[in-house]
Design brief:
The chain has nine helices and twelve strands. With 337 residues, it is α+β, with helices and mostly antiparallel strands.
């Protein structure tokens, strides 16, 4: 019955390892996110069509809850872990979005490209046609265990279009906001409309998956502050008429470890390790085959309890790094270059 013994011992090692990582691992905030990591090919054609830029808000997403499971032996071995972010409020996240937006606007201004002001953007016909999302916008993408809360800076509405999948309130066939953004580009002299998004996670989860046959199941949890790959990136739209326009999305290809911002705490655990260990001992000595458990299970939950100041500093480090990549794209992908 080695598979059950392996998973129980593995679960014990997991709990110790997760607690150790939060205290002992050190991450270095990234100084730069290169265009290669951002994969700017998706926006190259759009960014180079007009020199003028307009930033339609700044979308900051925070993963608030996640989880992972693993099993083997046709379900006879089962592990499950859930993780939750605590200690940060909506007001605090929107304040971080304020600072991230200001940083992006400052970095874009240094590229020398003409920029539309927020007042100019709001005065366009296209802006008035946009349908805002609820604040905050909460989304758990299909087949993804993570739940994200997405906000805009204070005083700004939150907008998505169909191409922002999977973190969007628009269906794949809902082109209303896409057409409104195209109209906004027309209203601003065919300006390139930028729609940045940065999504932050607080844990990197890994597991052995679900196997019909195998020697054990395992789950790994590495706490920290991360910029999420494929959720974070930059959208760009440019149009000459509202019904048609060019667009693209440059997505982050690799997640970025930014830092630590709190304490990783195990809040609950439910397992039958003692029962499985007893049966393994009895089976190894051939004493008895009675009482064999039909299921080895290990369920646990954790909280990442953040210090608000440390959390804000770490998240803003991640946003600034992404902003540098966005500004690099704006400086590099210009008409005539």
């Amino acid at each position: 019955m080695s598979s059950r013994r392996d998973v129980v011992l593995g679960g014990a090692a997991l709990a110790a390892g997760a607690a150790f990582s939060a205290a002992a691992q050190t991450y270095v905030a990234p100084g730069q996110v290169s265009l290669a990591v951002l994969d700017s090919r998706a926006i190259k054609a759009t960014m180079g069509r007009n020199d003028r830029l307009a930033v339609l808000g700044y979308r900051l997403g925070i993963i608030t809850r996640s989880g992972i499971s693993a099993s083997t032996g046709q379900g006879t071995v089962s592990m499950q872990t859930s993780v939750e972010l605590t200690g940060v409020s909506l007001a605090q996240v929107r304040a971080i979005a304020d600072a991230a937006y200001a940083d992006l606007m400052g970095q874009l201004a240094q590229t020398g490209r003409p920029m539309a002001t927020l007042d100019e953007i709001r005065a366009t016909k296209g802006y008035r046609l946009l349908t805002p999302a609820p604040m905050p916008f909460i989304k758990k993408p299909f087949t993804d265990a993570r739940t994200a809360a997405i906000v805009s800076p204070n005083g700004q509405d939150l907008f998505f279009q169909h191409a922002d999948t999977p973190l969007t309130d628009r269906s794949p066939m809902d082109l209303k906001n896409w057409r409104a953004i195209n109209q906004m580009s027309v209203d601003l002299g065919n300006a390139v409309i930028l729609t940045p998004v940065v999504v932050i996670d607080f844990a990197e989860l890994s597991g052995s998956g679900h196997k019909v046959y195998g020697g054990g199941a395992s789950i790994g949890v590495k706490p920290g502050i991360y910029v999420v790959d494929f959720f974070s990136g930059l959208g760009a739209n440019q149009a000459k008429i509202a019904l048609a326009g060019d667009g693209g999305r440059a997505l982050l290809q690799r997640r970025i470890a930014v830092g630590q911002a709190g304490e990783f705490v195990k809040t609950a655990s439910y397992n039958n390790r003692d029962e499985v260990a007893w049966w393994n001992m009895m089976a190894s000595t051939a004493t008895s085959d009675a009482g064999r458990p039909t299921l080895a299970y290990d369920y646990s939950s954790y909280q990442y309890r953040v210090d608000p100041a440390q959390f804000a500093a770490a998240v803003l480090d991640g946003c600034r790094a992404m902003n540098r990549a966005y500004a690099e794209a704006a400086a590099t992908l210009r008409p005539g270059r």
